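Let us walk through a complete example step by step. Step one is to write down the protein sequence. Step two is to encode the small molecule, zinc ion, as a SMILES string so that its atoms and bonds are unambiguous. Step three, shown after the inputs, is the structure prediction itself.
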Amino acid sequence: MKSYTMYHCHSYYSLLDSATKYQDYIELAVRDGAKALSISEHGKPLNWTEKWGACKKAGIKYIHSVELYLTESLDNKVRDNYHVVLMARNMDGLRELNELVSRSCDEDHFYYVNRISFDEFLNMSDNIISTSACLASPLNRLPTTHPRYMELAQKYDFLEIQGHSHEDQVLFNKRLFDLSKQLGTPLIAGTDTHSSSKYMAECRQVLLEAKRKSYGDEDSFDLTYKTYPELVEMFSRQAALPEAVYLEAIENTNRLVEMTDEIILDTSIKYPILYGTREEDSKKFVETVERKFQDKLDSGVISESQKNAFRASIDEEMRVFQKLKMDGFMLSMSELISWCKDQGMAIGTARGSVGGSRVAYVTDIIDLNPETWHTVFSRFCNEDREEIGDIDIDCVETDRPAIFKHIIDRFGIEKTARVASFGTIKEKGVIDEVGRCLSSRWIDMMGGNSSDNPYSLKNIAEIKAEFDSDPEGTKKKYPDLFYYYDGLLNVIISQSVHPAGMVISPITLRDNYGVFNKDGEPCLMLDMENIHDYTGLAKYDFLILSTVTRIRDACDLIGIKYPKTNEIDWNDEAVWDDMMTSNAMLFQFESPFAFDCLKKMRPRNIFDMSLVTACIRPTGASYRDDLLSRKIHKNPSPIIDKLLENNLGYLVYQEDTIAFLQQICGLSGSAADNIRRAIGRKQRDRLDAAMPSILEGYCSKSDKPREQAEQEAKEFLQVIEDSASYQFG
Ligand SMILES: [Zn+2]
Ligand SMILES: [Zn+2]
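Step three: the predicted structure of the complex.
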């Protein structure tokens, strides 16, 4: 069967102008034998990397494209905002296109929408393929006598005809056919598809009407996906051009496949570079670690008794960071957080697995001494790690803008960017949107407002309440309203900026990925998942933890500095007693249930307290009561009892599994962490493969006869397996 290449279409990333998932277009393209697909969103190729990934997976070529806006001149802001479809011919074209889009979002370019000037369009290189787009093309909206008309007409690689049976489109197609003969520029058949099916087109219409964005005589424009025969039929019905001409124009869409190179995305990990080269960063990092380690020894922040343990761990961690080329990342974190602290900002103690890194403690990334608090490094990072490093930072909300600004100043505006995020319509939102649309349709039909309107705000509010208590019943009761429900649920309708995330990159972002301007800060056109899955860029998350804010405020009130953990007396009996009197400001114990558990345990130190934190999770239910009543748990052997003595003998933390495998069975940090993960993912074969070395290690530590020792180890491994899903990290 004959096929064509859909190069002009819009998914819900053309915000509010489509309800269709781009995945549906990919499915249709594959079903109908297309070799490639270009999803030309309005203005910005949002989340384009996942579209690239999805096309690749589906086995069709991804053509990088956008339907961008043009303006005659940037000098005086006129809302002319013409349309043009741009496609990248190759990798250079992709970067040029992204740079153009990024530039179009700059303040001097933006006016209602992001635009480039006629001059910028005319100066594009041959690496970008352009078509004249829809009726919003300057070739349609400008008179042929306009001084720049022919200059523009000559620039396009293709003149785009569309098959809508609308008088204006008929006239435009004829004009394009004349131009094509005059200039020798080929015609190409654009579909301007906005919906994957008739149903999705109705959903789009609801969305437009609810947002009062309806465009009058859109009815004569059929923007629904067409198969090859349907497309031919459309042009035939339109009867604007000879058959041979439009058949050729349809065939020309397939020429795009040969005209464009495969887009290759480098997804390898890209940590920032601070001092010119990675080698230089590495040297600087070693210097920083050594200097800060010595400082902490000199000042007594790290005690003499911990010195040797720190030395050994630092050497091992540095070897791993070197191997993973993470030096620049760790150095950037150290410099950033040190800068924050120098500014007097309050930064949280530590969040997540980085709490196990001695190097992170020494370099002030965290303020939690892993030797003192028995946290392990290999959960944060080990030499087999393939995931990009990830450190979350807790800060105070009002400090965050200054932190972002500092990052941009330090690393340059070209290599830093905020992260996009997208808003979708949720269950109740769908009811609101459809309600708004049906209400205005009802008013149009019945004339004027009336209390009988079944979709009045009051009625919609009641329907939402009904939906809350009985979703399925409500759907059946209001079939008109819920007819659109499935089509509109989870449709992306808005774009914003992730409040916490920032990317710091070793490569420029405007051209490689595309950015838009958010109040003077660049923001990537990609969201967190796209960045994680397709770019290899390191993201920095500055999260807001209200506890940090409250502690800082309390310190301000009594006139002291935000305390460091080594300055705090963790064994102050008065504090542990006082904690039982109120849950105010007790992080994670704010709820009555959690506070109740805390009171049962009556913690006398941090280890007690973190045991309560672990067991108040739903996953801690199995040992919660025993642990809170301080019943000591017996393990298969005294060496394991000893290992878990801080937990009253319970296997609570993921660290415990690692410690068992590493300290008792003698496995390396990475081997231990890999086995922990394998157990968590129920990959029995990987545990079996490691079994001989685990048993060997355990038996050599045990003074029991071989057979008995093996039995003990196996018994405990069973406990680990059984509990894998609820160990606390
Ligand atoms: Zn258009
Ligand atoms: Zn379009």
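Step four is interpretation. The CA atoms of residues 163 and 232 lie 9 Å apart.
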